[in-house]
Amino acid sequence: MSGSEGPEGVPDGPAARMGFAAGQVVLEIGADDDVDEALRSSITATVGAPMVGDDFDDVADVVVLWWHDDDGDLVDALVDGLSAITSGGVVWLFTPKAGRDGHVEPSEIGEAARTAGLSSTKSTSAAADWAGTRLVAPKIGR
User: Tens digit of pLDDT per residue, the chain (142 long)?
Assistant: First the structure.
């Protein structure tokens, strides 16, 4: 596992600090050979199960989207991710950090998120080569 365990055996690695929690179903999209394996391990250790893939036919609590600048239309990918999560779910968009191949400008992420109907709530240094942006759908009504 990446990271250590905190009080009462609860994982406190990077995934727990990003808000991943035990029992969540996490759908992973866009995983390639350059993803951060330590971060992936931290996510699976924190949620207590492997991430599901593109062939998953139910809704997930969280979508993990690995994205490079040349992967296509980010808006389409975010809309697809949004359609795969439960109400109140989260999309974590992981992109290469500045200076790395495939870096996506924060302004492009913000514009694509707004177009897809998402709001950015947190940005973080997710791993050595990857930045993470937490995206959520706005709450409607109360």
Answer: 344 444 455 557 899 999 999 999 999 999 999 999 999 999 999 999 999 998 899 999 999 999 999 999 999 999 999 999 998 899 999 999 999 999 999 999 999 999 999 999 999 999 999 999 999 987 654 4
CA-based radius of gyration for the chain: 14
In CATH terms, 7-136 corresponds, of 3.90.550.10, 3.40.50.150, 3.30.1160.10, 3.90.960.10, to: 3.40.50.150
Judged by DSSP in three states, 68 sits in coil
Look-up: residue for tokens 């062939």? 55
4: amino acid identity, one letter: S
* Cβ(112)–Cβ(71) below 8 Å: no
